[in-house]
Amino acid sequence: MVILDVGCGVASFSGYLLNKNVITMSFAPKDEHEAHIQFALEHGILATLSVITTKKFVFLDNAYDMIHCARYMVHWHADGGKPLMDLNRILRPGGYFIWFAMPVYKKDEGDQNVWKVRVNLTEVMCWKIMARTYYKKDRVGLVIYQKSDSSSCYEKRKENKPPMYDQKYRLNSSWYTPLDSCLLPPSLSDYEWPAPWPQRLNIKPLSLLLEADAEEIFNEDTRHLAALVSDVYLRGLAINWSGVRNVIDMNAGYGG
Q: What pLDDT, on the 0 to 100 scale, is given for residue 190?
């Protein structure tokens, strides 16, 4: 499973999942959280900083199996729900969004207004509430949503609001572009859930199905990099790899 943790603090959520065979990207808003992200990276946890609620996430469509947010100060409903719609874009069809926040359980007017807006928005986005609960001992409320994996829900909407993206939009759609008010429809290649981790590492990604020679290119890239790492990096360089955790690949190709 591949997870995005938004508003991650010191990335304790990601740290807990390290031994669960779960890959987690810890993500924090670029305000006062530079020290938190530095802490996470120094402890060997994937983490990054970026702007939230004005620009799109710099991740491609359908990138994450699950998104987790325990930070109430991220106003997903702001600006007509644009931040939540972009979250929908990077969440895989059938994927889950876990939200810890006061509007989930508090009864005061402000929090209830936020919850009502959230309900209306997620309904037109075709998200289903799988669970909503309050842990009295810890004073924590959470809701778990599941994104639809079928286009039928969107087709049944009385109004096309928010509208659906045109499929041709998808190329280079997320590179530092402003938020907008559109939804990404599931395509035929999105219906099949990918193989479990880590088996999916050696299986051609579903997003490459439309390219005629994609599988051959992907397999060749995987073989090339496997040989490079095994024969050169691990054996031919005087590096103590036991002390290396976080590596950034500046020319990743297919990520082999």
A: 47
Domain range for 108 is 51-199
pLDDT at residue 75 is higher than 50: yes
| pLDDT, tens digit, 9 for 90 and up, residues 98-117 | 998 887 888 889 888 888 99
Question: Which pTM value belongs to this model?
Answer: 0.86
Residue 127 lies in a domain: yes
- The conformation of residue 175, written as its DSSP 8-state character, comes to S
pLDDT of residue 167: 64
d(CA 193, CA 2): 12
pLDDT over 80 (residue 49) = yes
Whether 44 and 242 have beta carbons less than 8 Å apart is answered as no
Is there a domain that residue 32 lies in? no
CA distance 3 to 14: 9
Assess contact for 74 and 87: CB atoms under 8 A: no
DSSP string, 38-90: HHHHHTT--EEEE--SSB--SS-TT-EEEEEE--TTS-TTHHHHHHHHHHHHH
CA separation for the pair 40, 52 (Å, rounded): 19
Q: Which carries the bigger pLDDT value, residue 193 or residue 93?
A: 93
In total, how many domains does the chain have?
A: 2
User: Which residue, 38, 35, 39, 30, is CA-closest to 7?
Assistant: 30
Q: What is the DSSP string of 120-147?
A: HHHHHTTEEEEEEEEETTTTEEEEEEEE
Let me know whether 160 and 231 are in one domain: no
